[in-house]
Design a protein that fits this description.
Elements lengths: L22 H4 L10 H11 L6 H7 L5 H13 L3 E9 L2 E8 L21 H12 L1 E2 L1 H8 L8 H14 L2 E5 L8 E4 L9 E2 L5 E3 L4 E4 L7 H17 L3
Antiparallel strand pairs: 1-2, 3-5, 4-5, 6-7, 7-8
Length: 240
């Protein structure tokens, strides 16, 4: 059982480990990784040897409209992953067939709207490192996850770790103290896509295709206990 924690996660905790239980995460292991629209388009390109048109995509994947399909196929063409061939001309409006010419596997390329390579975000770099290390503190994430192109900083890492802990992805193996960072352990590895922090501090998991945590809604019992303990600890600390 965890004692009262000051400042919730980076706190003084004398006994045990802080463990959050999220039934949405607990029920999802193992599971099939949900493919988003861009990934579905990539799957369609890989599965169609003769190529696709923009209308083919819009008809086959209802969640992708014509404009979105056109933008994504155009970006993939600019980046050199698909070829483009005109197959029809009606009222001066050409129809193009897009065919995959550079297959890099199941994971589609990370590119922007102009086809330029897009580097991973800070949270994506942190999540990737978490999945490798499994047990870690914030400094270890920085040391292992930073690259010449993306140098992680302690504030961003600690903030994202707090979000993941609140949502139930992480447990605290050793609470932080005055000169010692908290040690976390990954307990729910839902897949390669980094959980996204949305407006209102909601956590959306693209691997599951759902919001797994919303602080505005009732929390599981373990979260409520931790929340109440944290409030009491902060109240007591204010009188010190």
């Amino acid at each position: 059982m965890c004692c009262r924690c000051q400042n919730s996660l980076e706190s003084n905790c004398k006994n045990g480990m802080a463990i959050h239980s999220n039934p949405l995460l607990s029920a999802s292991n193992p599971h099939t990784i949900v493919r988003n629209d861009y990934e579905k388009l990539w799957d369609m390109l890989r599965a169609t040897a003769d190529g696709v048109t923009i209308r083919d995509v819009a008809r086959t994947i209802p969640s992708i409209n014509y404009d979105k399909a056109k933008a994504w196929l155009g970006a993939l063409n600019s980046a050199g992953y698909v070829s483009r061939e005109q197959i029809d001309l009606t009222r001066n409006l050409p129809t193009y067939r897009y065919q995959l010419i550079r297959d890099i596997g199941q994971k589609p390329p990370r590119i922007d709207s102009k086809g330029a390579p897009k580097p991973p975000s800070v949270n994506e770099a942190i999540w990737r490192t978490i999945r490798i290390l499994r047990t870690f503190n914030a400094n270890q994430i920085i040391a292992s996850g930073s690259t010449p192109e993306l140098v992680l900083n302690i504030a961003s890492v600690r903030q994202y770790l707090r979000h993941l802990h609140s949502a139930g992805y992480l447990q605290v193996r050793q609470a932080g103290q005055a000169k010692q960072l908290a040690i976390y352990q990954l307990i729910h590895n839902t897949g390669p896509k980094a959980p996204e922090v949305q407006r209102g501090k909601k956590i959306y998991d693209g691997n599951l295709g759902l919001v797994v945590y919303d602080p505005a809604k009732p929390l599981p019992p373990s979260h409520e206990a931790e929340k109440n303990n944290s409030k009491q600890a902060k109240k007591g600390a204010s009188h010190v």
